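[audit] Reproducing an earlier prediction to check determinism. Same input, same settings, fresh worker. If the tokens differ from the archived copy the diff job will pick it up downstream; this log only records the rerun itself.
[audit] input (152 residues):
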Amino acid sequence: MKENLRVSQLGDLTEISGELKVLVFDKNEFLRPVRQQIDVRPEIHHGELVLKMGKVQFEKGFGVNLTLSGNYGRTLFNGQVPRDFMSIRDGRYDDESIVVIDLDRLLHGTLRRGEYLNAQLTVSLMNRNLTLLNTRHTPQLEQSVRASISVR
């Protein structure tokens, strides 16, 4: 939902005008990425972390929060993955998407071959620039998964 409202006052009369942009979509399709299981590929090939999940229908609100720790518990990354380090494409089947995170670019080439990493990922369907109507009927807007992955 996005709104642009103008308020004008003329004596005792207040006029509110503007436009309200509302996106309407199927709730089950929208929630598919957080309702279906998220699979994390256990190896990082060519610096890419690959996730397989339910079909992402609404990319504008989609986000991945990542906490990545390496050997001896050192934190390599903690935060929201910027959109320019992530790509979303259709999976093999109609109801799945493949999300690829370019860790090599995100971590500025500091990944080491043979290293084992622990990842905590939270997939979210909402960002703070959007407002979802009827949220009480949509309780789960994110899903978390943990994975151990190796760098190849």
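[audit] rerun output stored. Observation attached for the diff report: The two ends are 43 Å apart (CA to CA).
[audit] end
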